[in-house]
């Protein structure tokens, strides 16, 4: 899946679901703290998206798309416990980009891949709107949080430190 395809699929799903969102053009940037300034949102309103590998056994692994507020750090051990795993680490860049369908720094808070389980920290629900790069470094979305929860249907679990 190319970046354009992930972007187009996102827009198509949001439009078909009647989501309330705004597109925001900005200079190319993938780092949450910097791009939040370009977009004009508080860092805690940003949806930071990380692909995490959890090993469940010697030959079994599971990948999670962990979505956390931009001002928080992910608790990898919590995610490992949640999955009943024996090892946890960030996925390799190649694997993360393949599963997410877009380059690092542009990963969406939606999973379009069957091998990528979507988990979000409940702190995201404290904001009326979330902001994230839209599978592109130069374009972001501001999406109503209630629409995000309705459409993406993430598993809400505390996964931040």
* SS content category: alpha/beta
User: What characteristic shape results from the CA principal axes?
Assistant: globular
**CA-based gyration radius:** 15 Å
- First and last CA, distance: 32 Å
Helicity, as a percent range: 25-40%
What quaternary form is this? single chain
CATH homologous superfamily annotation = YbaK/aminoacyl-tRNA synthetase-associated domain
Low-confidence stretches: none
Structural notes for this entry:
By secondary structure, this protein is an alpha/beta fold. It has one domain: YbaK protein (Alpha-Beta Complex), CATH 3.90.960. It contains five helices and eight strands; from the N terminus they run H-E-H-E-E-H-E-H-E-E-E-H-E. The chain is globular. The protein starts with a helix and ends in a 5-residue tail after the last strand.
What can be said about this structure in brief?
The chain is an alpha/beta fold and 161 residues long. The chain has helices at residues 3-16, 32-39, 76-83, 93-100, 145-152, and strands at 21-25, 47-55, 61-69, 87-90, 116-120, 129-136, 139-144, 155-156.
List keywords for this structure.
YbaK protein; five-stranded mixed β-sheet; 161 residues; globular; alpha/beta
Write the layout of secondary structure elements.
Layout: H1 3-16, E1 21-25, H2 32-39, E2 47-55, E3 61-69, H3 76-83, E4 87-90, H4 93-100, E5 116-120, E6 129-136, E7 139-144, H5 145-152, E8 155-156
Parallel strand pairs: 3-5, 5-8
Antiparallel strand pairs: 1-7, 2-3, 2-4, 6-7
